Amino acid sequence: MPVLLTKQYSFPIEDVNLEIRHRLQSGDTNSFLYVVPTKRKVRELQREFLNYAPHGAASGFSLFTLETLAAELFSVICLPRRCVSGPVQAVLIQEAIRSVSESLQYFRIRKGSRGLPHGTFQKIINVINHLRERGIYGSSLYAEITSAEPDEKAKLQDVLSIYEAYGRQLGENYIDAAGIL
């Protein structure tokens, strides 16, 4: 159910959809922000909103998913960074692994191999994305390493090394989707 959160009105808005339709018909497309769950719903609403716009034409609507809203807010609040896609992220993580390959104890790259096995590599990407989505940083992982079982320490240390190297790869110019959230 859509919710309109802007300012206090002297009259209650009974039907949000009707209110949006009236605003669109009057050409007031920038007076509301609409957040929906999926990009498919964004496309669907864009088509619907164009039907209500005067002469069937309007400038961009303020339709967002939670991810695109977070990205938009991030770009307004923080220094601009280029958002990396999945394939670019994989390349950056591969480079991070290569940069720390000499210190890796658990995840060793076999001689003659260009990198880790695909499944292991994908799992590392998933773990790094999970940590970044949850806002877990290196200092938290250091504490985890000190309290870990001896057989898990090497794995955690390697994940931490790769995680930090990946952060250096991103630097101040790039950000991934997990970093936006």
3D structure, described in words:
The protein has 181 residues and is mainly α. The protein has helices spanning 16-25, 39-52, 66-77, 86-99, 118-133, 138-146, 150-170, 177-180; strands spanning 34-35, 63-64, 82-83, 174-175. The strands form two sheets. A two-stranded parallel sheet has the order 1-2. A two-stranded parallel ribbon has the order 3-4. The model has no long low-confidence stretch (mean pLDDT 81).
Please supply descriptive tags for the structure shown above.
55% helix, 181 residues, mainly alpha
How many DSSP E strands? 4
Count of runs of 4 or more consecutive helical residues: 8
Q: Roughly what percent helix?
A: 55-70%
- Pairing-aware structural class of the strands and helices? mainly alpha
In short:
Helices cover 55% and strands 4% of the residues. The chain has eight helices and four strands; from the N terminus they run H-E-H-E-H-E-H-H-H-H-E-H. The strands form two sheets. A two-stranded parallel sheet has the order 1-2. Strands 3-4 form a two-stranded parallel sheet.
What's the layout of helices and strands?
Layout: H1 16-25, E1 34-35, H2 39-52, E2 63-64, H3 66-77, E3 82-83, H4 86-99, H5 118-133, H6 138-146, H7 150-170, E4 174-175, H8 177-180
Helix pairs in contact: 4-7, 6-7
